[in-house]
Structures are given as structure tokens and as C-alpha cells.
Amino acid sequence: MADPAECSIKVMCRFRPLNEAEILRGDKFIPKFKGDETVVIGQGKPYVFDRVLPPSTTQEQVYSACAKQIVKERSLKCGKFLSIKELSTAS
């Protein structure tokens, strides 16, 4: 049987900040974060994930938390270095 540490599925939940239209409409950001793993929506029950990423999380932090280890492991298995980089330009 495979080692659960090597095969486990991790569930991460990222929350984006309100966009400009939502702010202008007067929407409020409702989720409340309880540590790195729990989020409560309004007065509801807590939801627990392997990791919760709040709106202040950068793309680099998302990559480090969610994909970096997978890319590293896959690179080692295929014998080649694999890198993922997002390029963007302002217009």
C-alpha cells in the first residue's frame, strides 16, 4: 500500500478580494479566518481545509503553498528540471 503522505489529496481554498464593482455596490467581505485552516462564512459553521488562503495572499504564495512541491517532485521523477512561471504585461 502506498504511503498516505505521498498520495494524499490536499484541499486548499483561496479567497479573492472584492473587485471594484463589488466595492462600489457596497458589498462586504464576509469570510472570517481562524488560523491557516479554518474559515467561517457569516455566523455559519466553520469549514476546515488543509489550508485557507486569504485575499492578501500573493500569486507567489499560492504557488508555494499549492504547486511548488508537486512541480519539484515531478521534475525529479522525469529527470529534468521543470519550472512554471506566469508572465504578464500591463496594458
From TrEMBL:
One of its GO terms (biological process) is microtubule-based movement. GO terms for molecular function: ATP binding; microtubule binding; microtubule motor activity. It is found in: Cytoplasm, Cytoskeleton. The keyword Ribosomal protein does not apply. GO terms for cellular component: cytoskeleton. Residues 8-91 form the Kinesin motor domain. The keyword Nucleotide-binding applies. Signal peptide: none annotated. InterPro entries: Kinesin-like_fam (IPR027640), Kinesin_motor_dom (IPR001752), Kinesin_motor_dom_sf (IPR036961), P-loop_NTPase (IPR027417). It comes from the Eukaryota. Its main location: cytoplasm. Keywords: ATP-binding, Cytoplasm, Cytoskeleton, Nucleotide-binding. PANTHER family: CENTROMERE PROTEIN E, KINESIN HEAVY CHAIN ISOFORM 5C. Belongs to the TRAFAC class myosin-kinesin ATPase superfamily. Kinesin family. This is Kinesin family member 5C.
